[in-house]
């Protein structure tokens, strides 16, 4: 059954929505590599990507990279188990 009237609210804010809310003297942008700062979790674990398993793997690989940047060497990439 399709509702005939509004029955929900969405309370989301996108990055671009915040620009008008910021005080110009306190506002700044930082450019980052997406792989180092963001991974999406929007699908169930059975899907191929954008799920909790792929996010955990991305985080583990990022942490391994931090160690490697400090000179620690691994025989293989980290395996992630849920």
If helices are DSSP runs of H or I spanning 4 or more residues, what is the number of helices? 3
Structural class, by secondary structure, is mainly alpha
Radius of gyration: 19 Å
Spatial shape: flat
C-alpha end-to-end distance:
38 Å
Mean pLDDT: 84
Residue runs with pLDDT of under 50 for 5 or more positions: none
Order of helices and strands: HHH
The largest β sheet comes out as:
none
Total beta strands? 0
- The proportion of residues in beta strands is under 5%
Fraction of residues in H or I helices? 25-40%
Features:
mainly alpha, 82 residues, 3 helices
How does this structure look, described?
There is one protein chain. With 82 residues, the protein is mostly helical. It is built from 3 helices and no strands. The relative contact order is 0.10. It has helices at 15-18, 34-37, 52-69.
Set down the secondary structure blueprint.
Layout: H1 15-18, H2 34-37, H3 52-69
Put the structure in a nutshell.
This protein is mainly α and 82 residues long. It has helices at 15-18, 34-37, 52-69.
């Amino acid at each position: 059954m399709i509702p005939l009237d509004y029955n929900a609210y969405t309370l989301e804010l996108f990055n671009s929505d915040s620009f008008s809310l910021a005080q110009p003297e306190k506002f700044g942008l930082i450019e980052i590599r997406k792989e180092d700062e963001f991974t999406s979790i929007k699908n169930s674990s059975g899907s191929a990507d954008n799920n909790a398993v792929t996010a955990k793997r991305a985080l583990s690989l990022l942490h391994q990279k931090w160690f490697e940047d400090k000179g620690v060497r691994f025989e293989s990439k980290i395996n992630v188990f849920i």
